[in-house]
Amino acid sequence: MITSTSNAVQMTNREFFRQREAAALCRIPGVRELMSAKGNQRTTLEQTYPDAAFALEIISNPFIADRELGAIQMEAYSAILNGESIADVHYKYDRQVDAYLTQHNWD
Fold first, then answer.
1. Is the pLDDT reported for residue 5 higher than 90?
2. Which of 9, 24, 37, 47 satisfies CB 3.0 to 4.6 Å to 42 for a cystine?
3. Taking residues 26-52, what's their average pLDDT?
């Protein structure tokens, strides 16, 4: 009988992605301040840290029911987790959403 013993930590996919999200958010200036902000401070901090506000918005809800918008959202989510520049991710996300809205304006 072969039994293997492993000291490797077993984690679920959810735990894995939560760890990646936490690591990605730690690298973004302003995230800590936004996460601990009181209600009336949040608006001011969102203006001060627009990249952090965008990253928190994407990471807090990466799933959207619309297939095309969901793909755009997941692309931004993956880019944030991979450590890409938030300003670049935000710019690309805005451009893709604008193109989607223009294309489906009369749907």
1. no
2. 37
3. 89
3-state SS string for the chain: CCCCCCCCCCCCHHHHHHHHHHHHHHCCCCHHHHHCCCHHHHHHHHHHCHHHHHHHHHHHCCCCCCHHHHHHHHHHHHHHHCCCCHHHHHHHHHHHHHHHHHHCCCC
Structural contact between residues 30 and 45, judged by C-beta atoms closer than 8 angstroms: yes
Q: Token pair 């809800």 is at which residue? A: 61
pLDDT of residue 78 exceeding 90, the answer is yes
CB 63 within 8 A of CB 73: yes
pLDDT given for residue 88 in this prediction: 96
Give me the mean pLDDT over the 21-38 stretch. 90
